[in-house]
Automatic annotation (TrEMBL):
Chief location: membrane
Sequence similarity: Belongs to the BexD/CtrA/VexA family.
Membrane topology of this protein: Multi-pass membrane protein
Gene Ontology biological-process entries: monoatomic ion transport
Species this protein is from: Pigmentiphaga litoralis
UniProt xrefs under PROSITE patterns: PROKAR_LIPOPROTEIN
Domain SLBB: 181-259, 266-348
Protein name stated in the entry: Polysaccharide export outer membrane protein
Gene Ontology molecular-function annotations: polysaccharide transmembrane transporter activity; porin activity
GO cellular component, one term: cell outer membrane
């Protein structure tokens, strides 16, 4: 009996000592440590924690809207007339001079224009092919450079050259095959691929419509336009919310448009919440308050509501951490104005007592094992 009491005393003493030394550190599960280094041995890699306050969220909202407005407006432009380029196919008719019409062509040139995909043959389209250096060869006139000209400018150039050989020439010039300029649309659209730029102004909405429109799986808030090595994010809901017409975005030859799938815009809610979950941003927007609500809120039995964190990764793979103290429910009004970004992780930490209880839960089976061994001995 005395031996059992002594053993129990030693076990109790051990538990007390370990607890005093910081039993919470031995508790299972994830926790947030403010002094943890994301790069071991690098003291500068300790994350800077930014409090989520009313003044901070309002300041960030103003900056976010201003930056988005400034970047998107660089894509705005007035559509220009189509300018002829290498590879285009021209129809040129000199009226009352059938000998100047190509053998495969006729005077009936009102049947419409053609946008030819890369790799297709132009043999089926009667007309004059603009050479790689921008020239066409026309009877009597010879080699004429038409690259960079509009239909009207090219026609006037041929008229001036034909006057030396034809009395009062009447010339009609049209572009039959648009092959020199195109943009590329990929991602969540019905028919991704290259789209030829023709005499219809190529705006962002025109490009999306020509590829069959965006799919239900698309994130309409993340339509990336890449031009000259720079990618600009366009959010259709934001533009409409601010009264800006997406058709004001004029695309240029070589632009790449990528419609991002909604699955790439996830956020993760972890820790002491009722239902840890993964959420998808709605048209690019989701507030911290909404994310917590979707997860059932902080667990009232285990969560430390003063320790709610949003962990965000930057381009250097260093964590950016934002802290919300939600001990008072009024803090949720601030959380409603804190907008999340794709791949954000929301972590609700456990209370100290909860971690201590978890440590004890793991320790008692070990204590019982020691007691059993001592009893056998």
């Amino acid at each position: 009996m005395n031996t059992s009491l002594k053993s129990a005393g030693r076990i109790a003493t051990t538990i007390a000592l370990v607890t005093l030394l910081g039993a919470c550190a031995y508790a299972p599960g994830m926790r947030f440590e403010r002094d943890a280094q994301s790069q071991p041995g690098d003291a500068t890699s300790v994350p800077q924690v930014t409090p989520i306050t009313p003044s901070y969220v309002l300041e960030q909202k103003a900056i976010r809207e201003q930056v988005a407005d400034d970047t998107v407006r660089t894509l705005f432009g007035t559509p220009e007339p189509y300018r002829i380029g290498p590879g285009d196919i021209l129809s040129v008719v000199v009226w009352d001079h059938p000998e100047l019409v190509l053998p495969s062509a006729t005077y009936a040139i009102l049947g419409g224009t053609t946008g030819i995909s890369i790799g297709d043959s132009a043999a089926g389209i009667p007309g004059y092919l603009v050479s790689a250096d921008g020239y066409v060869q026309f009877p009597y006139i010879g080699m004429v450079r038409v690259a960079g000209m509009t239909e009207v400018e090219a026609r006037d150039l041929l008229l001036r050259g034909a006057r030396d050989h034809i009395e009062n020439p009447q010339i009609t010039l049209r572009i039959l095959g648009f092959r020199s300029k195109r943009i590329y649309v990929e991602g969540e659209v019905k028919t991704p691929g290259s789209v030829a730029i023709n005499d219809v102004p190529m705006t962002l909405m025109e490009a999306l419509n020509r590829t069959g429109g965006v799919l239900p799986t698309a994130d309409r808030s993340q339509i990336n336009v890449t031009r000259g090595g720079q990618t600009i994010r366009v959010s259709l809901p934001d533009l409409l919310r601010r009264g800006l017409n997406p058709s004001s975005i004029a695309l240029q030859s070589g632009d790449i448009v990528r419609v991002v799938p909604r699955e790439e815009s996830k956020v993760f809610v972890l820790g002491e919440v009722t239902r840890p979950t993964t959420l998808v941003l709605r048209d690019g927007r989701l507030s911290l308050n909404e994310a917590l609500g979707e997860a059932g809120g902080p667990n009232q039995a285990t969560a430390d509501s003063s320790q709610i964190f949003v962990v965000r990764s930057n381009a250097q793979a260093r964590p950016e951490v934002y802290h919300l103290d939600a001990r008072s429910a009024s803090a949720l009004a601030v959380a409603e104005n804190f907008e999340l970004k794709p791949k954000d992780v929301i972590f609700v930490d456990a209370g100290d007592l909860v971690r201590w209880n978890r440590f004890i839960t793991l320790l008692f089976p070990s204590a019982q094992t020691v007691q059993t061994i001592r009893t056998i001995n």
